[in-house]
Structures are given as structure tokens and as C-alpha cells.
Amino acid sequence: MREDILQVKLDKLENIKEFGMEAYPEKAERDFSNAQALEKFEEIGEEKITLVGRVRSLRPMGGSAFANIEDESGKMQLFLNKGNMNEELFRLFTKNADLGDFVQVTGQLFLTKTEEKSLKVTDWKMLSKNIRPIPTEHFGIKDEEQLLRQRYLDLMINPDTRELFRKKNVFWQTIRNFLASDGFLEVQNPVFEHTPGGADAEPFITHHNALDQDFFMRISLELSLKRLLVGGYEKVFEIGRVFRNEGIDRHHLQEFDHMEFYAAYWDLKKGMEFSEKMAREVVKNVTGGLVTQYEESTIDWENQFPVVDYFDAFKKETGINLSDEVSVADLMKKADELGIKYEKSYGKGRMIDTVYKKTVRLKMIQPCFLIGHPIEVSPLAKKDPANPNKVLRFQIVAGTAELCNAFAELNDPIDQRARFEDQMALREAGDAEAQMIDEDFVQALEYGMPPAFGFGLSERFFSFLMNKSIRECVIFPPMKEKE
């Protein structure tokens, strides 16, 4: 900030203090929000009222001035005239109040000559004097990185950003209410875990000083929730923050809000019906309709979601039948043919997933259920009794994005241990995202977990509905510090 601008601001701050007015008082008084005052204009009449807000515009005109203040509910126009108030107070406002200051104003509502509802100010107080110039709507910040880094400025100058996060609240409240109305119990599980699990992701590590142990920050909500099914709850869910030490792109971020629910005795069919109904409710409540836009595609959520078989779609796009004996070398050869990048350390499951994402998924635009994933990419799902190469799993996919993940949950402790061991072998071979053996979870399964359906989605779904990157839809996303 230029030194001359800072000095002007500091001089104004000093003028306010010399007048005997607190520049940062401990409290404020308010009779109505701005929106309430406008709504009750006739009812309030000539009664004196007190409002608060941030100064958004100021237009001195000799012995009079117009200004706008804004609180969260909206704007109110102010009219100040030295004939209606203490002349020194009038000059103090017009000479020392700036855009961005928070003020408290007292006066009477009236209609201007242009029929605009306004407040005729008779008294005012400073609530918070700013000493940095505030970006305006016309001369705002154009650098997206700066807006994300200083999100408070983005919220301050962009009403659309404020509305975005109100919609995000509707998104999570819709999910919470939908599940609660069906008898699900909301719980809160630990963020620190001895063994991370429930997803293919590299975890963050932190040290617990009191216990003198390293812990992993959770990458999923899954294993704790399934332990609760072992304990006797039948319907549970959690909405909470998870942490994955992975790259940043339109769909991925290192920390984000995630939701998972688990229902004992449900099968995949019942889970699909319930999930489709919930997804449609979310879309309608958040967007106001059932048609959304994502990049260049118009997405229609109204029709019943068609079912797409993973193996059939994979064979159609690549020529590879995953029910046959398919090796890692076969998959790498196909990836080379298609120009798909991969790591030499990838195992079969990772290679299948890599090829799928660059072929099958790119063709999936309208909402659908992708079902029957390969067992190699689904270490926590039940095998399909009709095909041991498949699992009972589905994802809702739309606009080439995976928007949810759901399983008929694996509850066989012997099978689960074997799959964890396969994952550990991949991890030891260099796959940092392969899952670890969670001995405590396997032990919990050995006490018995009922057959169950599990479902998870994250705020990726919200960002998809808003047609924005997930980073834009987090209030304070993690950012690299400026050098």
C-alpha cells in the first residue's frame, strides 16, 4: 500500500479520536437489519431507528451528503444534512468516513424525491475505521489467485461469492435433513487415526505431543462409521473434513468436506433408489430446478438415471474384457496405444482406473449409475456373486465427473484381510495411495458386521452444480504462500 494513502487514513483515524469518538468501540446498537427496515418502512413511520453497516458509497454535496451502508441483508441509503444534525458530526462524517468503514447511524426513514426509501441521519458513530483502501465493484480485484488468497475481499466486493456459500449451506443442510428424516443418526468421528483407510489417497502425518505418537489425518469417514454398525447402530452418517495429500485440479483439493452414510441390511438396489432420490433433492434445493450447466454440457437430472456396466463400457472403449485374464502389461500396452500416462509402479487396479478415466468416463455426460467395478479397484466392497472379478458397487457419474461412491459393504473379515494385504503389497511396491492394513478394523469385523450399504459424496458434487472448480467453492482454500 502506498505510504501517502496510509498516512491519509491514519490522519482521519486521529481526527476521529481527537473528536472524542471511539474508532473501535466494544459494541454496537441496531434496531433492524437494513432489509427489515425497508420491509417495515410504513410500520416504522417517523420513529427514530438505529442501523449499522459498512459504508459502500459517499457523495458529499456542500451542506448535504448521500451515502450507502450495507449489512448482510442489503443496502440502505443515508441522507446527511448539517441542518438535521450536529454540524461538527456532519463534517466529521463527510471528511473522515471512508468506503469500507463500519458505522452506526440513527435517524428517521423517509422517501426521497425519486421515491427511494432512505434514512435521514441525525446521529452516527464509528464502529470500525479501516486503514486500507477497499476495492470497489467497478475497480475490483481481477486476479483470481488474490481473490482466493484474500477471500474476505472477494466476499466484500462480490455478492455472487456470498450467494455461492449460502447455496453451499443449502447443499449440506439438504443432505443432513434428508438423512435425518429417514432415521439416520449423525455422528462425529476422530480426524486423527493410527491407520488411514477408506480411500486410495496419500495421507498427511502429524505428531501428537501429549501421546508422543505420529497420527494420520483421516482420508475418509468410512472405517469409523462401519465400526458403529458393528457396535449396533443401523443407520449412521457423518459430514466432516477429510485430508488427502494429492494434487490440485478442478475436482481435487487437499482438504474438503465429505459425507458418508451407512445403512445396515440395505442392498445395492435399495441404496441406488435412495441415492437417486437424495441427489435429485439436492440439485433442486440448491439450484431451484433440475437442469444444470457444467462446462459445455447441459445436465438433466429429472429422468431416471440409466445403469452402465463398468466391464461392458470398458470393453467397448478399449477392446479389453476385464472378465478375462488381463495383466498389468496388457493394460500398460493399451495405455501406450492411447497415449495415456501412468507410473511404472502401478498395479493392475491402478492401471484399470487410469485407463477408465481417460476413456470410459470421458463419454459419460448425463447422470447415470456406473456399476460393477473391478475388484482390484474396490478393496472395501463385496464381491458380485455372479462374477468374482466384479464388486457390488456404483458411482453416480455426470459431466465426466465421479460425483459419489457407493458399495454393498464387505463384511467378511477373512476376505477383507486378504484385500488389505494385496493393497499393502502395492504400497510396498511404490504406490503411495494404496491402502494400509487396519488391524483394528479387521478385528471389529471379526466380531460381526451386518450386511450394509454405504454411500459417500463430497463438496465436489456442489462445485459441479455450481460449474466451478472445487477450490473456488471452498471459502478459504489452501494456497501456496507468496515468496
Q: Determine the structural class based on helices, strands and strand pairing.
A: alpha+beta
What is the global morphology?
elongated
Q: How many separate domains?
A: 2
Task: Round the Cα radius of gyration to an integer and report it.
Answer: 29 Å
Identify the CATH homologous superfamily of the largest domain. Bira Bifunctional Protein, Domain 2
Architecture of the largest domain, CATH level 2? 2-Layer Sandwich
**Tally of helical runs:** 15
* CATH fold assignment of the largest domain: BirA Bifunctional Protein, domain 2
**Beta-strand content:** 25-35%
Quaternary organisation:
single chain
Give the % helix: 25-40%
* Overall pLDDT: 93
Number of strands: 21
Report on the structure:
The chain is α+β, with helices and mostly antiparallel strands and 483 residues long. It has 2 domains: 3-134, OB fold (Dihydrolipoamide Acetyltransferase, E2P); 155-306 and 366-473, BirA Bifunctional Protein, domain 2. The protein is 34% helix and 26% strand. The chain contains 15 helices and 21 strands. The strands form 5 sheets. Strands 6, 10, 11, 14, 15, 18, 19, 20 and 21 form a 9-stranded mixed sheet that branches. A 5-stranded mixed β-barrel has the order 1-2-3-5-4. A hairpin with a 2-residue loop joins β1 and β2 (64-71). α7 (159-181) packs antiparallel against α9 (268-287) and α11 (328-338) packs parallel to α12. The longest helix has 23 residues, at 159-181. It is elongated and about 90 Å long. The two termini are 17 Å apart.
